[in-house]
Amino acid sequence: MDSILRLVNPQREAERRWVHSALAKLQQESARSADTHLLKLNFPGFHGIDFYFKDEASHPTGSLKHRLARSLFLYALCNGRLRDGQAVVDASSGSTAISEAWFARMLGLHFIAVMPACTAPGKIRDVQALGGECDLVDDPAQVHARAAEHAARGACHLDQFGLAERATDWRGNNNIAESIIGQLALEAEPEPEWIVCGAGTGGTSATIGRYLRYRRLHSRLCVAEPAGSGFVHGWRTRDPHAVASQPTLIEGIGRPRVEPGFLFDVVDRVVEVPDSASIAAAWLLEELLGRRYGGSSGTNFVACLQLAASMRARGQRGSIVSLLCDRGERYAQTLFDPSWLAAHDIDIAPWDAALRASLATGTTPMATSPTA
Ligand SMILES: *Cc1c(COP(=O)(O)O)cnc(C)c1O
């Protein structure tokens, strides 16, 4: 009698049923979603080199953080950390918060995004429109502490910076690397020379770097980062305490310090890109692709051209794959507003000329530029 009572503990059973229904909702969402496109571009200066851009802006929540948010909710549920009626919190400067708010609403949970008060107003509105609460913190260095306070009061901390590297199934499950390699199957160069991405949480680079090794591909991983970021200094010296030597205007990447998810050993090369070059490249991508993407997509594009120029100089052919990380509409009042650029003392004209020269002649965009 006693053991039967324990077996059918109604509260535990109800909790278990809720977790099952939440997991079913995430699986249904995944089944409804299409994979993101891999767009191909070729440029006159780079004969024999194919460029591919994975359009992560086409996720329902507009960025590659859609994948991360889905993984973080799955990880919390499967670890028994997330229960019916529990609030959910994370520290995020925007893209992750938008995706997490979307999934929280789907699961009927209250979501709190802890953000620096200086976050782009459009991103704050996006989180609020999805029913999320934005807890704005004046000092950006305090966001983690504030998220921990919410967690101490009972909220489930999704913890993108702490868990991004492990929440994603790097061996497969259609992670971003498996998806890219699968989509290249029928191409002339199905095994890319390089895959290029940035580092925010470090989750994307960790997944790609591990997957390339696991599948025994010859492709190498390049991290494209704003000049002087924490990742740049940390990768060089393998120093977990490295900090950035300069701030960046590019959202989503260029962290001020080394995050727990930065796996330096799976990264073969780091290319540093000045902010004005990234912004000029984001403008140019709009012309090339007919759609706006964010600043970190521009950073990736500059690094792709840098790598292509050295391939060309060695007479090497092959393919280079990179990511379009988020929608450019989010930056209409910032990176895509000429008066905002002027107020931040950014002149994209010399970089625009350098990038166009690179596309036309196959030279590196960074050596030819007059300013850094
Ligand atoms: C998060 C983010 C990145 C970096 O991806 P991680 O997997 O977090 O390293 C790049 N661009 C944008 C716009 C992002 O939001």
From TrEMBL:
<dbReference type="GO" id="GO:0030170">
    <property type="term" value="F:pyridoxal phosphate binding"/>
</dbReference>
<feature type="domain" description="Tryptophan synthase beta chain-like PALP">
    <location>
        <begin position="35"/>
        <end position="326"/>
    </location>
</feature>
<comment type="function">
    <text>A cysteine desulfhydrase that generates hydrogen sulfide, H(2)S. The H(2)S produced by this enzyme may modulate central metabolism.</text>
</comment>
<dbReference type="Pfam" id="PF00291">
    <property type="entry name" value="PALP"/>
</dbReference>
<dbReference type="GO" id="GO:0004124">
    <property type="term" value="F:cysteine synthase activity"/>
</dbReference>
<keyword id="KW-0963">Cytoplasm</keyword>
<dbReference type="InterPro" id="IPR036052">
    <property type="entry name" value="TrpB-like_PALP_sf"/>
</dbReference>
<comment type="similarity">
    <text>Belongs to the cysteine synthase/cystathionine beta-synthase family. Cds1 subfamily.</text>
</comment>
<protein>
    <recommendedName>
        <fullName>L-cysteine desulfhydrase Cds1</fullName>
        <ecNumber>4.4.1.1</ecNumber>
    </recommendedName>
</protein>
<dbReference type="GO" id="GO:0005737">
    <property type="term" value="C:cytoplasm"/>
</dbReference>
<keyword id="KW-0663">Pyridoxal phosphate</keyword>
<dbReference type="InterPro" id="IPR047586">
    <property type="entry name" value="Cds1"/>
</dbReference>
<comment type="pathway">
    <text>Amino-acid biosynthesis; L-cysteine biosynthesis; L-cysteine from L-serine: step 2/2.</text>
</comment>
<dbReference type="InterPro" id="IPR001926">
    <property type="entry name" value="TrpB-like_PALP"/>
</dbReference>
<dbReference type="InterPro" id="IPR050214">
    <property type="entry name" value="Cys_Synth/Cystath_Beta-Synth"/>
</dbReference>
<dbReference type="GO" id="GO:0019450">
    <property type="term" value="P:L-cysteine catabolic process to pyruvate"/>
</dbReference>
<feature type="modified residue" description="N6-(pyridoxal phosphate)lysine">
    <location>
        <position position="65"/>
    </location>
</feature>
<keyword id="KW-0456">Lyase</keyword>
<dbReference type="GO" id="GO:0016829">
    <property type="term" value="F:lyase activity"/>
</dbReference>
